[in-house]
Write a structure and sequence with these properties.
- With 241 residues, the protein is an alpha/beta fold.
- The protein has a single domain, classed as Vaccinia Virus protein VP39 (Rossmann fold, 3-Layer(aba) Sandwich).
- Helix content is 37%, strand content 22%.
- The chain has ten helices and seven strands.
- A seven-stranded mixed beta sheet has the order 3-2-1-4-5-7-6, sandwiched between helices.
- A hairpin with a 6-residue loop joins strand 6 and strand 7.
- The protein is globular and about 50 Å long.
- The chain starts with 6 loop residues before the first helix and ends with a helix.
- The model has no long low-confidence stretch (mean pLDDT 96).
Length: 241
């Protein structure tokens, strides 16, 4: 494996209150190598420069520690995980997490499984499917302490995809890159319908940068009605509002 200048990454993680050992750092570097190599033949990310991947994918994924509800031994599902952000990064750094990665593109799932196998990660699964369908499965419905997503969708749509997976007392935490007061306002009805309530927003800049981030913390207060999520495509086409 190539040698990488990781001092910026380690400094950024320290700013988040995270320290990692050599094994975890080596796993992150191997993940980066596999990401870049696979990206040559499959579109996984537009961000490929080493420092950019470290900051905008790895550090960003780990910024969930800025919320006061993240627990290192939680069960977590990542909806629309893509190349594994944030769920796979979180699993590497916090190996006690029990993680499910969900994506609708099988080629991405194949990539994720190759990383999981290469890094010998345990208690993690990558599933090919759609949130609208998997959320109807009792094995997954309301089974997770945390549901995270960096998917590009409005809060109403994301809430319908994600809240049905969260157990009562658990949390749905979407990663946002912009101020979303109007979006949140429009999502109030969706949150109420789906059994969630807004707990807090955590707004910050990624360490040593001017990159704005916003973590929205939604608590699951009561069960999501069985009719949600609606059939495939509906949450995006006709958001609850």
């Amino acid at each position: 494996m190539a040698e990488y200048e990781t001092s910026k990454l380690l400094s950024d993680l320290e700013a988040l209150g995270i320290s990692i050992d050599d094994e975890k750092l080596s796993q992150l570097m191997k993940y980066y190598e596999m990401l870049i190599e696979t990206n040559k033949v499959m579109n996984l990310t537009a961000i490929t420069e080493f420092d950019d991947v470290m900051k905008k994918h790895f550090v960003d994924s780990l910024s969930i520690v800025k919320t006061d509800v993240f627990k290192e031994e939680a069960s977590l599902i990542d909806i629309g995980t893509g190349a594994g952000f944030p769920g796979l990064v979180l699993k590497i750094v916090f190996p006690a997490l029990k993680v499910t990665l969900l994506d609708s593109l099988n080629k991405r799932i194949n990539f994720l499984n190759s990383v999981i196998e290469e890094l010998n990660l345990k208690n993690i699964e990558a599933i090919h499917g759609r949130a609208e369908e998997l959320a109807k499965n009792s094995k997954y419905r309301e089974q997770y302490d945390l549901c995270v997503s960096r998917a590009v969708a409005n809060m109403s749509t994301l809430s319908e995809y994600c809240l049905p997976f969260v157990s009562i007392g658990g949390y749905f935490i979407p990663y946002k890159s912009e101020k979303i007061s109007e979006e949140l306002n429009a999502a109030k009805k969706a949150l109420l319908l789906l059994g969630g309530s807004l707990k807090e927003q955590v707004e910050f800049m990624l360490p040593a940068s001017d990159i704005y981030r916003n973590l929205v913390v939604v608590k699951k207060e009561k069960p999501s009605p069985k009719k949600f999520p609606r059939k495939a495509g509906m949450p995006a086409k006709e958001p609850l509002c």
